[in-house]
Design brief:
With 321 residues, this protein is of the alpha/beta class. It folds into 3 domains: 40 residues; 208 residues, 3-Layer(aba) Sandwich (Rossmann fold); 56 residues, no CATH class. The protein has 13 helices and 7 strands. Strands 3-2-4-1-5-6-7 form a 7-stranded parallel beta sheet, with helices on both faces. Strand 6, helix 9 and strand 7 form a beta-alpha-beta unit. Helix 2 runs antiparallel to helix 6. The structure holds guanosine-5'-diphosphate (GDP) and magnesium ion. The site of guanosine-5'-diphosphate has 16 residues, from helix 4 and helix 5.
Length: 321
């Protein structure tokens, strides 16, 4: 059995850090360990929080952590950050926001940079959540910045999804339309100390009534002022309520099952796409087609369909080289 997994399951926090580092490096030892770790997951509860930059997500995570620590439960925090020249300071900002927890051995904090990765939640986040879960952490908070697909990707890992917005975020309705309504279990209008918070909450509630959501759970819309802690108790109560709803309705297991099936399909797609790309780019028999496409003698989509049905394409390509 994987030594790192064994140490992790024994609750050694250094093993958890080590495993995550191995995952980040794509080390084969991490994949070996994850085979063992996977069978020891399911006990932790995962809450995802997403929303535009500056909405107050890290402040909310900090406050929730404080509250949950007072009950004695342990907390793991994963901050997913799309590192760019413009948000390069975000991780540093998160560190300041969550500073008071860094010396608490009951809180485990890790950031994931998404630089250079296209859409979706980075795959490593799912492995990290499993590792935290298997190590015995009770509550896992995953913060993702709302930029398109990463925002929606939170549904692939969280049991409860929180969407944080602000009174002044003018693009809110746009955000809601862009798929967020399908994934939100709970809405927060944070910065409720500012003008327009009530109107914003009313607007969201109005949109929710029009949307076809789960008939069994209607997402509450809460007002919070995260930096003072106002509304955080109520938020935690609602998270617990949602958890109870998921557990008693059987939806929790279904949701987790869907997440695992989707992850499997995504992994199949990812590996196949890589193998195919390697072949298509390196196979000289395709030069003729590629030139025709470049010369606009055929359009790329038609060429792709034709190619896949032709004898040029071989299913053997999908086997490892
Ligand atoms: N006025 C006000 N400021 C807040 C509130 N919550 C967070 N902030 C501030 O908003 C800024 C961004 O917060 P942060 O938690 O880093 O947002 P994130 O980018 O969503 O993680 C920080 O300066 C916070 O202190 C709030 O409820 N009211
Ligand atoms: Mg943040």
């Amino acid at each position: 059995m994987s030594e790192i997994a064994e140490r992790l399951l024994a609750g050694e926090q250094r093993a958890l850090s080590r495993l995550i580092t191995l995952l980040e490096r794509g080390d084969p030892a991490a994949a070996e360990a994850m085979k063992v770790v996977d069978g020891h997951t399911g006990r932790a509860y995962t809450v995802g929080i997403t929303g535009p930059p500056g909405a107050g997500k890290s402040t909310i995570v900090d406050q929730l952590t404080q509250l949950v620590r007072e009950t004695g439960s342990t907390v793991g925090i994963i901050a997913v950050d799309p590192t760019s020249p413009f948000s390069g300071g975000a991780i540093l900002g998160d560190r300041i926001r969550m500073q008071r927890h860094y010396l608490d051995s009951g809180v485990f904090i890790r950031s994931v940079a998404t630089r250079g990765q296209s859409g979706g939640l980075p795959r490593i986040v799912k492995s990290m959540v499993r590792a935290l879960d298997a190590s015995g952490i009770d509550l896992i908070l995953v913060e993702t910045v709302g930029v398109g697909q990463t925002e929606l990707g939170i549904i692939s890992v969280a049991d409860t999804v929180l969407v944080a917005l602000n009174p002044e975020s003018g693009d809110t309705i746009q955000t809601l339309k862009a798929g967020v309504m399908e994934i939100a279990d709970l809405y927060l209008v944070n910065k409720a100390d500012r003008d327009g918070a009530n109107q914003m909450a009313t607007a969201i509630t109005g949109m929710l009534h029009m949307a076809i959501n789960s008939p069994k759970w209607s997402p509450p819309v809460l007002l919070t002022t995260a930096h003072t802690g106002q509304g955080i108790d109520e938020l935690w109560n609602k998270i617990e309520e949602h958890r109870k709803f998921l557990t008693t309705s059987g939806e929790l297991n279904e949701r987790r099952g869907r997440q695992r099936r989707r992850e499997f399909l995504e992994a199949v797609e990812e590996v196949l796409a890589q193998r195919l790309r390697d072949r298509v780019e390196n196979d000289p028999s395709l030069n003729a087609i590629l030139e025709k496409i470049a010369a606009k003698e055929t359009d790329p989509y038609s060429a792709a369909l034709e190619f896949l049905d032709s004898s040029l394409f071989s299913a053997n390509w999908l086997n490892p080289e």
